[in-house]
Recover the amino acids of this structure.
């Protein structure tokens, strides 16, 4: 069963057509479901659902592409992006810095996902002139963590 | 912000899925924002105030209280 309703799919498809400019690749890290139970290790509850959601989103525009890695196999790619847990994904497009999502982007975060895809596609944001100037002159590294819940 | 600067990494973390991180960063309400491990606040802020928090984190005057 689809996670995104038919009505929402059409709304998002139109929104992408009007706003996506450059190509964006979503690089996702997941964990393959294993028939072997490893003591002390929790299976990834949201991996399959996150992958399905991203597959549905990327199917709505030719400018979007999804690449899925098994974190156990793609260790070099994961460590280059500082990804140490799943499900996680990053965007590759016209963004200067890195945007990473950890966990399923449902609820309010789903609209953040759609908005971020458009910003990364355009390589710019709707932030004020002052903020953008400040960021363009930034010399120090900044990490911003935003904790959310799926409501 | 991460789209605008190569120096910015933005992480969106689903707190329920990663209770270890939620505990480490003492997440009791969302959205909770942590900048460079030093400056933190809960709730959405107007853009100018958000930028002020980023400046504070860079200038090493972290530990802003909610």
């Amino acid at each position: 069963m689809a996670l995104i309703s038919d009505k929402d799919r059409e709304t998002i498809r139109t929104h992408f057509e009007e706003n996506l400019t450059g190509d964006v690749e979503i690089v996702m890290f997941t964990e393959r479901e294993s028939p072997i139970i490893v003591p002390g290790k929790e299976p990834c509850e949201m991996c399959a659902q996150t992958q399905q959601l991203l597959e549905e989103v990327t199917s709505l525009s030719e400018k979007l592409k999804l690449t899925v890695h098994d974190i156990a196999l793609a260790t070099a790619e994961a460590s280059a992006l500082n990804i140490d847990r799943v499900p996680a994904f990053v965007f590759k497009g016209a963004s200067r810095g890195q945007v990473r999502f950890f966990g399923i982007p449902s609820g309010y975060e789903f609209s953040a996902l759609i908005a971020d895809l458009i910003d990364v596609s355009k390589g710019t944001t709707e932030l004020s002139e002052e903020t953008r100037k400040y960021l363009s002159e930034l010399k120090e590294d900044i990490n911003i963590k935003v904790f959310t819940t799926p409501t | 912000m991460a789209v605008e600067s190569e120096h910015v990494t933005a992480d969106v973390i689903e707190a329920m899925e990663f209770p270890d991180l939620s505990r480490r960063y003492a997440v009791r309400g969302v959205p909770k924002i942590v900048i460079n491990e030093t400056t933190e606040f809960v709730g959405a802020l107007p853009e100018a105030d958000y930028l002020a928090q980023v400046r504070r984190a860079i200038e090493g005057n972290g530990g802003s209280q909610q």
About this structure: DSSP finds two helices and three strands in chain B. The beta strands of chain B are 8-14, 32-35, 39-42.
